[in-house]
Write a structure and sequence with these properties.
heterodimer, A: 276 residues, alpha/beta, D-Maltodextrin-Binding Protein, domain 2, 5-stranded mixed sheet, 12 helices, 10 strands, B: 222 residues, mainly alpha, MetI-like fold, 79% helix, globular
């Protein structure tokens, strides 16, 4: 056995050096990787109700504009608003309401003239297909059924669809009774996941998610009357902290084209110009 | 399965353990050798991320390094962009979050080095830098390796901090854990399941390698 003093120590020391060297390389490997990212994809912060809709829109846009990359990130409008306000490098913000984009403009984080309405959303009460509750006919009274233990809504503080759900429950006179059963999703997509997975018995979600491939065939829904909640006008705005303002403008124009409107309509959105 | 998320996470974990090696070694050496009584406050600060919720670390990174703080603006001018919601921001947050996982094993390893050896070297005329390099580091190596691997593995599994300061941007800040969360939220259980399995396997392999290495060191002649 060789003695530690003559070989062991230098060997392990060499290993330390090698290891340290590799880590150094790794650290500096990330600098050029960042430079590559300056190929400037369009970063979109989008309200979670747009999840499937915008994925389709992005595919259509990228097909029509080869070489252009769009990276959507989804969350509740309020979360995305806070992120952009704190310096997140998004180029375009597609909110589920008008309030958050307007606040961004007030705070100088978005371009004043870039505010645009792109869709009007709708709220539905959704239940899994295998649920014995016939939501389509029961309507809002389904939430009062004793078999219902949990009703999912989005967090009203950060999600416009959550605020709409809360308003609708109040307007339809069931809020007091249903309040102990409410579970809050962080955004409308998580809310939909709560009920789609069966963890919640019923959920108030966006029509756009109810019509998405994942939920269309796995559940049934009742459309909450439009006068039960404040209009879900969805607006977008071009952020000043982004790196691709021109691309953002181009995408905004794309949202007004016939093919884009067709996609929005397919997911149950009403469109600003048609609605009088 | 989102490969860009896996690659990003691997890069983040590598860079973070690299940063922690550079920052952690001197701190740990100082903690192991100092006789200063206020040492416990530094040790407490190092251990804070063990008990603080990740949201607290996320909050401080967001507010402390964002465009509204002086430090954030200064760093922003320096790097050309504000730190939250960027890869660099994630590195800073992860390094804070995994700090105890590097510094504590490092400190323990340095403390286990026999003082007599260090003193003998000093008496024979070695400089402190040389003692650190040629005696302390080689003898403490198994513990140092544990610290590197643990901080790497801990960063792999980081979620709360990234959720708060990441912004979920594909290829930039969407790590594997966020991508799983994202897949579940959008009811894509298949992708979530596959990604979770890959992360499980990688974590298992990383930890197996660690224990295998430690075993080698235990069997090494003393």
């Amino acid at each position: 056995m060789k003695s530690l003093a003559t070989t062991g120590v230098p060997d392990t020391f060499a290993a330390v050096l090698r290891c340290g060297f590799c880590l150094f390389l790794a650290i500096f490997a990330w600098l050029p990787a960042r430079a590559d990212d300056a190929g400037k994809p369009l970063l979109i912060a989008a309200a979670a109700d747009l999840k499937f809709t915008l994925d389709d829109l992005v595919s259509a846009y990228e097909a029509a504009h080869p070489g252009h990359a769009v990276k959507p990130s989804y969350g509740s409008s309020g979360t995305l608003f806070a992120q952009i306000d704190n310096g997140a490098p998004f180029d375009l913000f597609l909110s589920a309401d008008v309030k958050f984009p307007k606040q961004l403009i007030e705070r100088g984080k978005a371009d004043q003239d870039s505010l645009f309405s792109y869709a009007i959303g709708h709220l539905v009460l959704w239940a899994p297909k295998e649920s014995r509750l016939d939501v389509t006919h029961l309507g809002i009274n389904a939430v009062l059924d004793p078999v219902v233990k949990k009703v999912a809504i989005a967090n009203p503080k950060v999600a416009p669809y959550g605020a709409a759900a809360e308003a609708a429950l109040q307007k339809l006179g069931v809020y007091e009774k249903v309040a102990p059963k409410l579970v809050l999703g962080e955004n409308i997509a998580q809310t939909a996941q709560f009920v789609q997975s069966g963890a919640a018995d019923l959920g108030l979600v966006s029509l756009s998610l109810a019509l998405s491939p994942k939920m269309k065939d796995t559940g049934k829904y009742w459309e909450v009357p439009g006068d039960a909640f404040p209009r879900l006008e969805q607006a977008g705005v071009i952020c000043t902290g982004g790196a691709s303002a021109a691309e953002a403008r181009q995408f905004r124009e794309f949202l007004k084209t016939a093919p884009a409107r067709e996609v929005l309509r397919r997911y149950g959105f009403a469109l600003p110009a048609e609605e009088k | 399965m989102e490969w860009s998320a896996l690659w990003l996470t691997a890069r983040l974990a590598l860079v973070t353990s690299g940063v922690l090696l550079l920052v952690g070694l001197p701190v740990a050496w100082w903690l192991a050798t100092t006789k200063w009584r206020g040492r416990m406050f530094v040790e407490a600060v190092v251990a804070l991320p063990l008990v603080l919720p990740p949201t607290v670390i996320g909050y401080y990174v967001l507010v402390g390094l964002g465009p509204k703080s002086g430090l954030g603006r200064w760093l922003g001018d320096l790097t050309g962009h504000t730190l939250p919601f960027t890869f660099t921001g994630l590195v800073v947050a992860s390094a804070l979050y995994s700090l105890p996982f590097a510094v504590q094993p490092f400190t323990g390893a340095f403390r286990s080095v026999q003082r007599e050896l260090l003193e003998a070297a000093s008496n024979l005329g070695s400089t402190p830098a040389r003692i650190f390099r040629r005696i302390a580091i080689p003898l403490a190596w198994p513990g140092l390796l544990s610290g590197i691997v643990l901080s790497f593995a801990h960063t792999l599994g980081e979620f709360g901090v990234v959720l708060m300061v990441g912004g979920n941007i594909r290829g930039e800040t969407r790590t594997v854990s966020i991508s799983i969360y994202d897949s579940v939220q959008t009811m894509d259980y298949e992708t979530a399941g596959r990604t979770a399995a890959v992360l499980l396997i990688i974590s298992f392999i990383v930890l197996s390698i660690t224990y295998a290495l430690q075993k080698d060191f235990r069997l090494a002649p003393r």
